[in-house]
Structure formats: C-alpha cells, structure tokens
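Deviations from the work plan: none for this task. Representative record:
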Amino acid sequence: MIRPVLSRRHAIADDLRHQISAGHFKAGERLPSESQLAVHYAVSTATLRSALALLQGEGLVEKIHGSGNFVRRPLRKITYIGGGCPAATWTAFSAPLRMTARTTSIEAASHHTTLLNVPPRSALTEVLFTTHEDKKPHSLAHIYVPRDLAPATPRLPERIAVSLPDLRPPLCEVQERVSARLPTQEEATTLRISPSLAVLSVTRVSLDASGRVVEAALLVLPGDRADAVFTTRLATEERTPKP
Amino acid sequence: MIRPVLSRRHAIADDLRHQISAGHFKAGERLPSESQLAVHYAVSTATLRSALALLQGEGLVEKIHGSGNFVRRPLRKITYIGGGCPAATWTAFSAPLRMTARTTSIEAASHHTTLLNVPPRSALTEVLFTTHEDKKPHSLAHIYVPRDLAPATPRLPERIAVSLPDLRPPLCEVQERVSARLPTQEEATTLRISPSLAVLSVTRVSLDASGRVVEAALLVLPGDRADAVFTTRLATEERTPKP
DNA sequence: GAGTGGTCTAGACCACGAG
DNA sequence: TCGTGGTCTAGACCACTCA
C-alpha cells in the first residue's frame, strides 16, 4: 500500500473528493468549469479532466456535455435479490421507482437460441424494461419469453415479470450468471452513466419442471448503486435436525 | 445505436481490434510502440494512448510499463460457483492453477465487526488467497474466520477453505453479495490488470445453524475472465401466493 | 543506456446545451 | 450566441524495464 508520490491528477481527485464529502460542493451542485478548475489547480485542462475521470469512475461526479460536472446525489441503493423469486426480485428496489416496459415480437437470433435453447427463428416476445427514479434511469432489463408462454396481448402491463409466473408451469430451476464489465456505449447513454463506471450484468435463465427455458433475462445494473444478493439455505438433513 | 462519426480513438481501437482478431497481432505478442503506432495512424501520442485505453478496458491489451503493449492470451474462464458449496467453489477453476495462502492473526476492526457480527477487537484469523496461472495472478480472496473456529496452527495448509467445513458446525446459510466496480490501485497492481478493467466483488458470509457467522470471504475476480453463477432449485410443492 | 510507457503542458477546434 | 465539455496536437520530461 505504497503511495510515495501522488500524481497531480490523483492529488486533485483526492482534494475534490474531500471537498465533496466535506460539503463544500453539495449534492446536485455544479462544479466550477473544467477550465476554471484547471486554473485553480494550476494544471492543464487535460490533466484536470483525467482527475475528474477518476471521480466519474467512482460515481461521485456526473459529466453532462455542454452543461458541466455535477456532484451526484447520494445514491439510492438497489439490491437485486437472486434466487429466482420473481416477486422479490424487483420489490427490493427502494419504493418510488417508475418502471417502463416496451414489448416487441422477434425471431430468435443466434444468441437467443443458445440462451433459451430454442430453434433458430422461433417466435419470442422481448420486453425491454427500464426503471427510473426522478426521470433518471436506474437499470435496464431485456427479458425474452417464448411466444407461446407470453400473453398474446401486444401491449403487456408493466407487471409482466410478476404476472408471468402465474401463467406458466411452476419454475423448477433458476440460473443466474453474474459478471462485471464496463457498459457498452449504448448502455452508458441509456443509463446516463460514465463509460468508465462498471456495471453488474446478470443473465438469468428460468427453467420449468420439464427443463424448458421459460424466460431469459439480461439485466444491467450500474455498479455504483446496485448489488446482487444471493442467499442459500443449505439442507441440513444429513445431520440430525434440531428439535 | 447511432455512430455517425467515429472519433479518431474509436476508429483506431476498432482497427487494432480487427487486426488482433484477424491474427495480424498474435496472442502474447507485443504491439508496436505507442510512438510508432501514433506515427502510423497519424495522431498524437495522447490520442493513440486513449485508443489503447479502450482496448485495455476490454481486457484485449495489457500494458506493461517500460516494456510495451501486449495482446492478451485468450483468457481461461474462471467461474465462481455460488450457493455455498465451499468444495465446488474453487474446483470450478480450470485445473492447473497455483494457489497461495498467507495466514495472519488480527483483531476485528470496524468493518469486520459488522460483517462477522463479532465484538470489536475480537480475535480473527485472516487468510489472504491468491490464485495464479503461469505466475500471472488470477484472483484475490480475503477470508476471515473467528479464531476459535480456525485451527491454532500458525501456518495453515493451502486447503483451508476446503478443510474448514469439516471442522466446524455444518453451514446453514450462505449469503453472497455481488457488486461490480473498478479495482483499487492495490488490487489492480496485485492482479496485474488495468485500473479501468471492472472487477467482480463477492462478499460471502456463512452462518451455522445457530446463526453465528463462521466465515466471511471477500473475493475479487477480474471481470474479463470471471463470472459468478448461482443456481437455485425451487421447491415445487410450495406455490407461494403473492401478497 | 536505449527504449518503453506515464504524466503533463498550452494551446486549438468541434459538439452540445441552454437562454 | 455563449459557455460548457469532447477531442486532439506536438511536443516535453519522468519512471520503468531490459540488455
């Protein structure tokens, strides 16, 4: 843990971090412009921008092109609850979130066939979810369901993810694959996050008792505000159960 | 998905990406120096470096200070198996990995007390794991166990994570919290990854039947080669009605 | 010591956002 | 239109690696 000399940009980032946490710059407030800050710290704009890039990566500062750099509001924590309980999955989000859904009918492309284990070009229903808090995007979800399992209504209610379990055979197994990566450019703009802010990517595949894939979900959660939690209760039947 | 004009650095990154995937630059090979590439693409070194930064973030290129930029070998995939089966957790790693462990005795600091639910300054055993493939670091793990549950031997065998379950009361519940973030500077240097490559951070807490925390593990896995998989089998006899 | 990447400068011009 | 951030230049000097 050796930090013998601090590079300029780290020193500046540290100073801004402290000023933010000390309240000299308040949440939602605009920082001085990059050129002003560059003058203040007596560095070039390029150096100052690389310092701000560090704070962006930490999710402390949000850049808006043409407007300025803003201190982010304290983040409302999102917790994704794993383990295949669809009702609980989203209720863990802190309450006043808006959710929008857009439903389209598609034919299975190659990555769908491997994910859902369906023939190529078979009929799928795709639902694109976005959750918002105060008009700010919070998370993204692509959900794919075989067409015969999804209601035929062209516009599904927003509660599709919750209502679906009632319409199909009971789920038997849920597999969730979690990875960390940087967002694609599309995801970064949709979620309004920095391209250097890591996202949590969850690929969830749900199987019914016959082993058929009844739903595949691709979720993208910004890493600065989202965790995924998986709780496993282990069968203790091998040992003598307690009274 | 609008990409009307490609910025220079994106165009250069795309070109290098294609050259790498086409085999013009082979795995493990050194790229031309940054100044040579800058001349070749007729851009300044700063612009060229920002192009390389994109490839680093994708894990395609590894920079080594003083040596050059290297095409990464195709990555051996690491899969972290969740769900609290400690034996399976690490056997899922592809075979020929070396694992080193360093054991120390510490007193619980504030973040340990909340994690392990133990009194401040209580005795803990800390194990620092690193896994290697060909001398290259692969993953990091900090494991904390209450001292009275860990064998008193000052130097534990490497198999501590596997052997521990046999020595203590059977596990009852495992909670795993997964998040995505950029690595700390320390993690980046230890894992020899770019500071802009996202890591998967897993905090695993294991409880025994009495609810006592018998182990807390903090795992750090590079996002370009590691996934975490959680498989849940749902009890089909129980159709939980929704509130 | 030669060559590499790491940091930084002092500008320039372009693209976006709001009034 | 004007101020903002986005991109880029053509250098400079420092730190690291390796022969």
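The beta strands of chain B are 61-64, 68-71, 78-81, 98-107, 123-133, 136-146, 171-181, 199-208, 213-222, 226-233.
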